């Protein structure tokens, strides 16, 4: 009898070593390596045994036209949008999210909606008892839906039970609680998660059933378990939101049967999750348009245009190193925008604390938000109130130039639909203005000059002060288009500025 062999596997990245150590050399995580028995299933046989002879596979032409894969609409418009139009038979979806964010609530509502439409649906819980799931369904008013409910964690038992019938949708909550008898390891370990996912994917492909796997997330927002699971499944979705807000965002990170980076917006209510048909109006609700330091960014999330409010606060610092705080945006991009404003537009922010916030808890990842963030910063430091009917979008380069972005026409159409009249955008960002007054600008200095020319603000107050009380002399600024010999401009915009207001 051969001696059983054990490996030491990192629970964060799945790296395998032959001994235990405190730090994983692959990902750098501490105390994440655990001892596991070597797999005894497929691929674990002795090397002295000759490999079986495989059967010949048939090739097909690349030019062969195939039909669009059939889809089963769930009935929840926001969920169908993210999946690409509905569920594809034989596909596997991995849904991740923080604890308590509403993953189980969303899936129970989806199961009930599909079951009421005549679909055969099974919900298998590995974390809660069936009585707890029934209580949640009763609270949501879904107790009458014909959903098959079970509580189990053994993958072989689950696959054997599901294989006896035909199901359109199977929900496994969650994959970290599942375990298979072919692997000698505790549930939740890297080996068990990988083996259980492989068995459930095999069931989905053999029986043309759509399987949704619920996955836990780590403290840094990544789905727990080996990253190979994300490569094995057909779609990876993230369900996140801010605990201080009622809205939740379902985001497609990977989708073999639909667009990626698509989002669906939901609102958490006492009766469960309700769809938000117009997310732009939802994020702009409660906007204080009469305050300086706010701008409206016309962004894109997948194929959906989305308007969000960008708020900035620039205040004098009492610290040796000014503070830079960002919520909902990349802190590195904020540092870049501040550097460009100081170098190419004469806006000195080195002695100020800078706070930037995306209202509503939304997180922006596209670089087209550079112009909206810069406009909010300049509005805050000058006290000038930006036009309430204008939206901003454009990417700022290190030379101060404003680069065009994609889907300019869709952004403007969304702004026009919500009652906006103007858009500040770079040249080349689409010719469809949707009836908006488009202010084309190709350099950040022009935008700063236009904001400084707006009426009111702290500029007019400082202009009335004597020169000796200001303590700031005129500074020369450089312009990448006009060379270093640009006309002098006061950093506080006390003198005349070029350009006209928006």
From TrEMBL:
List all membrane-crossing ranges: none
Q: Where is this region: Disordered?
A: 458-502
Tell me which InterPro entries the record gives: AAA+_ATPase (IPR003593), DNA_repair_RadA (IPR004504), P-loop_NTPase (IPR027417), RecA_ATP-bd (IPR020588), Ribosomal_Su5_D2-typ_SF (IPR020568), Ribsml_uS5_D2-typ_fold_subgr (IPR014721), Rubredoxin_2 (IPR041166)
Q: Does the keyword Transit peptide apply?
A: no
Motif stretch (RadA KNRFG motif) = 254-258
An example Gene Ontology CC term for this record: cytosol
Q: Which HAMAP family match?
A: RadA_bact
Role, per record = Plays a role in repairing double-strand DNA breaks, probably involving stabilizing or processing branched DNA or blocked replication forks. DNA-dependent ATPase involved in processing of recombination intermediates, plays a role in repairing DNA breaks. Stimulates the branch migration of RecA-mediated strand transfer reactions, allowing the 3' invading strand to extend heteroduplex DNA faster. Binds ssDNA in the presence of ADP but not other nucleotides, has ATPase activity that is stimulated by ssDNA and various branched DNA structures, but inhibited by SSB. Does not have RecA's homology-searching function.
What's the family?
Belongs to the RecA family. RadA subfamily.
Protein name as annotated? DNA repair protein RadA
Source organism of the structure: Lichenibacterium minor
- Provide the organism lineage as a comma list: Bacteria, Pseudomonadati, Pseudomonadota, Alphaproteobacteria, Hyphomicrobiales
């Amino acid at each position: 009898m051969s001696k059983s062999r054990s490996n030491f596997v990192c629970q964060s990245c799945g790296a395998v070593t032959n001994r235990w150590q405190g730090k994983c050399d692959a990902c750098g995580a501490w105390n994440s390596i655990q001892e596991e028995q070597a797999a005894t299933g497929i691929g674990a046989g002795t090397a002295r045994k000759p490999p079986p002879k495989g059967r010949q596979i048939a090739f097909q032409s690349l030019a062969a036209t195939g039909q669009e894969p059939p889809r089963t609409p769930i009935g929840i418009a926001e969920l169908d949008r993210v999946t690409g139009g509905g569920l594809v038979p034989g596909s596997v979806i991995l849904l991740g999210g923080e604890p308590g964010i509403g993953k189980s609530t969303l899936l129970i509502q989806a199961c009930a909606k599909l079951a009421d439409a005549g679909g055969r649906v099974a919900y298998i819980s590995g974390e809660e008892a069936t009585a707890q799931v029934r209580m949640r369904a009763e609270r949501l008013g879904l107790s009458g839906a014909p959903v098959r409910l079970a509580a189990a964690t053994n993958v072989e038992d689950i696959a054997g039970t599901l294989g006896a019938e035909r199901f359109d949708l199977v929900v496994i909550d969650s994959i970290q609680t599942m375990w298979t008898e072919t692997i000698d390891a505790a549930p939740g370990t890297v080996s068990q998660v990988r083996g259980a996912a492989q068995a459930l994917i095999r069931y989905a492909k053999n029986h043309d059933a759509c399987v949704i796997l619920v996955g836990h997330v780590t403290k840094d927002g990544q789905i727990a378990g080996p990253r190979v699971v994300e490569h094995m499944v057909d779609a990876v979705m993230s369900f996140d939101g801010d605990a201080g807000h009622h809205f939740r965002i379902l985001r497609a990170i990977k989708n073999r049967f639909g667009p990626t980076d698509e989002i669906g917006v939901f609102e958490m209510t006492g009766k469960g999750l309700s769809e938000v048909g117009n997310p732009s109006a939802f994020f702009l609700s409660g906007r204080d348009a009469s305050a300086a330091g706010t701008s409206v960014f016309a962004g894109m999330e997948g194929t959906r245009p989305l308007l969000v409010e960008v708020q900035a606060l620039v205040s004098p610092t009492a610290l040796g190193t000014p503070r830079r705080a960002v919520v909902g945006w990349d802190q590195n991009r904020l540092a870049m925008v501040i550097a460009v404003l100081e170098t190419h537009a004469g806006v000195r922010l080195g002695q100020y604390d800078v706070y930037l916030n995306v209202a509503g808890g939304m997180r922006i990842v596209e670089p087209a938000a550079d112009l909206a963030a810069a406009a909010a910063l300049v509005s805050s430091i000058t006290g000038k109130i930006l036009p309430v009917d204008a939206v901003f979008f454009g990417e700022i380069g290190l030379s101060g130039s404003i680069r065009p972005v994609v889907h300019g026409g869709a952004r403007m159409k969304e702004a026009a639909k919500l009652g906006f009249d103007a858009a500040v955008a770079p040249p080349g960002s689409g010719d469809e203005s949707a009836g908006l007054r488009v202010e084309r600008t190709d350099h950040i200095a022009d935008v700063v000059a236009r904001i400084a020319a707006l009426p009111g603000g702290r500029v007019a107050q400082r202009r009335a002060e004597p020169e000796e009380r200001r303590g700031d002399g005129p500074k020369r600024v450089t312009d990448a288009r006009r060379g270093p010999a640009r006309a002098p401009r006061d950093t506080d915009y006390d003198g005349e500025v070029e350009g006209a207001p928006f």
